[in-house]
Structure formats: structure tokens, C-alpha cells
Amino acid sequence: MADLILFWHRRDLRISDNLGLAAARERSPKVVGVFCLDPGILEADDVAPARVAYMLGCVAQLQERYQAVGSELLILKGNPVEQIPQTASTLGAMAVYWNRDVEPYSRQRDNAVAAALTEKGIEMRTKTWDQLLHAPGDVLTGAGKPYTVYGPFWRNWQNLVK
């Protein structure tokens, strides 16, 4: 029997063209999706009700897509730092995969989830910046510093895309 891997969806609410999910599937045919309704995001002052409604609709569609391919999407509610490791442990998952996120809150949360998984002896794998063509820090000046002027940044970025 194949080892179970959880794939934690956040902004990447899709099955197709998802680098992290593809990596999880390469490692094991038994992959279950997880989405956590994170109060740190849902209850933030700057989150509009329309955004939440749209997100929930996308999660429902994602759940249908998982069912169509013979798998499932678990929807959790609560702090991901607690919910993701607890769910992985309860289900006996060998690993949790996810795609990296650039937002400061997301990076802090992801680091805390990774630490909690490590503490439980569960492997974690983060894939490339699935939503970006180049990772932060790939497009730097000749001196190795971030650009402060857009024009030179744009030209350098275009050269990397070629």
C-alpha cells in the first residue's frame, strides 16, 4: 500500500498545473488534499465578504475535482499551525506538501507549520514558487541587490524569461 501524502492548498486552488501537487503525486499515488479555513486570514479587518464567498466557491469546486479523480479534499477550520500537523498525524501521513507563498503572514505561518510537522516526525516539502515565474531574489542587480528602479528590473526579468 502506498504511503499517504497530504497536499495543503492555500492560494493554489487547482489540481491541474500545480507544481507541488504534481510532486506529491510523483512520490505517491495516495494524495489527499487539505484546505484550512484560517481565521488569521478570514477574520482579518481588510478581508471583504465577497472575497471570502469567492474563495469558498473555489474550494467547493476544488473538492468536486478531487472527487472526480477518486480522491478527496479535507476542509479544516482553525489555526493551520495546529490543524495541519494534527490531521497529518491522525491520518498517518508520511509527508505534507505545499507550494511556497511570498506574503509575510504566509511565510511565518508556513515556517510554524513546518516546525510542528518536524516535531511530530512528519516530513514536509515545499515546492517552488508556483505562482511566480521567478522566485524572489532571482532578479537582482549586477551587485546582487534588489532593484530600486523598475526599468532595469523589467529588462533583466525579460532576459531571464527568454
Characterise the protein shown here:
The chain is α/β, with parallel strands linked by helices and 162 residues long. It is globular. A five-stranded parallel sheet has the order 3-2-1-4-5, with helices on both faces. Helix 4 packs parallel to helix 5. It has six helices and five strands; from the N terminus they run E-H-E-H-H-E-H-E-H-E-H. The chain has two domains: 126 residues, HUPs (Rossmann fold); 31 residues, no CATH class.
In short:
The protein is α/β, with parallel strands linked by helices and 162 residues long. The chain folds into two domains: 126 residues, HUPs (Rossmann fold), CATH 3.40.50.620; 31 residues, no CATH class.
Beta-strand portion reads 15-25%
Inertia-based shape:
globular
Helix content: 40-55%
Biggest sheet: strands, sense, closure?
A: 5 strands, parallel
**Which radius of gyration do the C-alpha atoms yield?**
18 Å
Distance between the termini: 43 Å
Low-confidence stretches: none
Strand arrangement within the widest β-sheet reads 3-2-1-4-5
How many domains would you count in the coordinates?
2
Please state the average pLDDT score.
Answer: 91
SSE series: EHEHHEHEHEH
Query: What is the name of the CATH architecture of the largest domain?
Result: 3-Layer(aba) Sandwich
CATH class of the largest domain: Alpha Beta
**Count of alpha and pi helical runs:** 6
CATH superfamily of the largest domain: HUPs
What is the CATH third-level topology name of the largest domain? Rossmann fold
Helix- and strand-based class? Answer: alpha/beta
Number of strands: 5
